[in-house]
Amino acid sequence: MIKCSGKSVLKGIAIGRIYLYKKQEYVLKQETVENPEAEAERLEKARVTAGSQLEELYQKALVEAGEEQAMIFDVHKMMLEDEDYLDSIRGMIRDEKMNAEYAVSLTGDNFAGVFASMDDEYMKARSADVLDISKRLIRILAGVGEEGMVSEEPVILLADDLSPSETVQMDKSKILAIVTKHGSTNSHTAILARSMNIPALVQTDVALLEEYNGAKAVVDGFGGTIIINPEEDVLERMIQKKMEYEKERTALQELKGKDNVTSDGRRINLYANIGNVSDVDKVLESDAGGIGLFRSEFIYLGREDYPTEEEQFLIYKEVLSRMEGKKVIIRTLDIGADKQVDYFKLPREENPAMGFRAIRICLERPEVFKTQLRAIYRASAFGTAAIMFPMIISVGEIRKIKKIVEEVKSELTKEGISFNRVELGIMVETPAAAVISDELAKEVEFFSIGTNDLTQYTLAIDRQNQNLDDFYDSHHEAVLRLIRMTVENGHKAGIWVGICGELGSDTTLTKKFVDMGVDELSVSPTYVLSVRKAVRDL
Ligand code: PEP
Ligand code: MG
Predict the structure, then answer these.
(1) CB 426 within 8 A of CB 447
(2) Of the listed 4, 76, 362, 500, which one is catalytic?
(3) Angle 173-466-447 (CA atoms, 0-180°, nearest 5)?
(4) Ligand in closest contact with the CA of 454
């Protein structure tokens, strides 16, 4: 039996087998081959393997997700047989004696570029598919395994570290717990684990030994430990603890359908945070009154190219429709810092948390911003949408945003596309925004306080830096005063103020927030009922 300690991100106990997650690093190189014929044969073999992989994926998706979802693999199979695509690769191998991997990559990029420049939305979207099949071929040629996690049964994921884009791509139904050697408790990966409602440990002093792969283990999110190959009595104790916790969680279910109201009648809105359409199930299950933060940037992560307006529209429409008129606050694209997306081709930065991110990118690249806004406005016809903008620091930014929003609205009107009224707000997550919140409040309809970044920037502590976890103190008086100031300034201007950062679910502060007059708390679906209980117990 081996016991290792880490920092817990979410309470709970998970019992299962370990899946050792390894990043498959592969560096693509251009090489000259001696024998182009043999290289072409290698390509042909890889093509056949890719075809059978896709057939398997098609059959699996057909059973698990239905025909519409499965079709994508059929399209990929057809592309793999496209003679223009194959001729281009074969030509490079034959004429330039190029290695197959490089020829596939160049051809993939060329074809993707052609698709991306087409006017037709459907053809545009095929650009990502070409890149996808090319990547598959390259992986097979180079003998590099599939990216991500492949497991039939739900497992305890043991990894060195996970980026938000890796986490977001994982099949969440197959994960019982996440244990990483690195990572900070305030990172987006930790936030995702919380929203998945699975125990997670970061900074765990565990070795990533091959022999642990498949071993039985217990993750104790209360004690912050992982026990590998547990002895019988330890296992028994953990099963007991798991049952007790589940009982506690079940007791909270009785609060479903009840008001978020204190005993002296103060009412507060309790919403949930999501990153994906698939999280809506948990929101509905949690009985949240709406969605207070849809981290829309997760739509952009883990892909090869920009999501199109149509793709985004369908996602927002589905979320809004499923929420049946309850408010859904969509935060516009907040990439940069830890959420890196290759196809944005952002310059490398010394200090990305303070760099070119979020609204700064949107204002510099209005075409990307407008695509998202058009998609949200079109979807607004299907429910109650609100939009908020991240990382705001000035009144000037809001004015620029509002001008772009007006352009989008008049374009849609000209095109005869209907949309509903959409409430516009901002995230207050920089000290600058909190300090000038009196000015900003005159420009928008609501504030949502992002305590994760507000803590980072107020205390000058990188939330990603695991060595600073003990210094990252969201209860710091400076952070609490900025929250209070924002609420007061918002109310003076007659707008509502919520909190959507992780601090919103900290029930040791619920009383303080209610006393300050906070109107809304938006928390991970996992915490909705425990916060409701805290409010009702006041
Ligand atoms: C925040 O900063 O508090 C917030 C809610 O946004 P994110 O955690 O996605 O940066
Ligand atoms: Mg933030």
Answers:
(1) yes
(2) 500
(3) 75
(4) 1
Is the separation of the CB atoms in 158 and 143 below 8 Å?
A: no
Structure token pair of residue 110? 């060329």
Which ranges constitute the DSSP H helices of 66-172?
67-80, 83-96, 100-116, 121-142, 164-169
Distance 272 CA to ligand 1 centre (A): 13
Per-residue pLDDT of the chain (538 residues; tens, 9 = 90+): 999 999 998 889 999 999 998 776 677 888 999 999 999 999 999 999 999 888 887 887 777 667 776 788 888 888 899 999 999 999 999 999 999 999 999 999 999 889 888 887 777 778 878 888 898 899 889 887 665 666 778 999 999 988 876 777 777 888 999 999 998 888 877 888 888 888 999 999 999 998 999 999 999 999 999 999 999 999 999 999 999 999 999 999 999 999 999 999 999 999 999 999 989 999 999 999 999 999 999 999 888 889 999 999 999 999 999 999 999 999 999 998 888 888 998 888 889 889 999 999 999 999 999 999 999 999 999 999 999 999 999 999 999 999 999 999 999 999 999 999 999 999 999 999 999 999 999 999 999 999 999 999 999 999 988 889 889 999 999 999 999 999 999 999 999 999 999 999 999 999 999 999 999 999 999 999 999 999 999 9
For residue 345, count CB atoms less than 10 angstroms from its CB and return exposed for 0-12, middle for 13-18, buried for 19 or more.
exposed
Q: How far apart are CA 315 and CA 310, in angstroms?
A: 9
Q: What is the residue whose two structure tokens read 């000209």?
A: 414
What amino acid is encoded at 142 in this protein?
A: A
User: Per-residue b/e over 448-482, b at no fewer than 16 CB within 10 Å?
Assistant: bbbbbbbbbbbbebbbbebebbeebebeeeebbeb
For 306, phi then psi, to 5°, come to -55, 140
Say if CB 497 and CB 518 are below 8 A apart. yes
**In the sheet that 13-21 helps form, which strands lie side by side, from edge to edge?**
2-5, 225-228, 216-220, 13-21, 155-159, 175-180, 200-202, 7-10
Distance CA 318, CA 299 (A): 13
* 182 is annotated as an active-site residue: no
Paired tokens of 208 = 């990533």
Predicted structure pTM score: 0.77
Spatial separation of the C-alpha atoms in residues 452 and 472, rounded to whole Å: 10
Neighbours of 277 (CB within 10 A): 17
- For residue 217, which of 397, 418, 6, 393 has the smallest C-alpha distance? 6
Closest residue (by CA) to atom 3 of ligand 1?
A: 450
For a ligand 1 pocket test, name from 451, 453, 482, 523 the mutation site with the most ligand atoms within 8 angstroms of its C-beta: 453
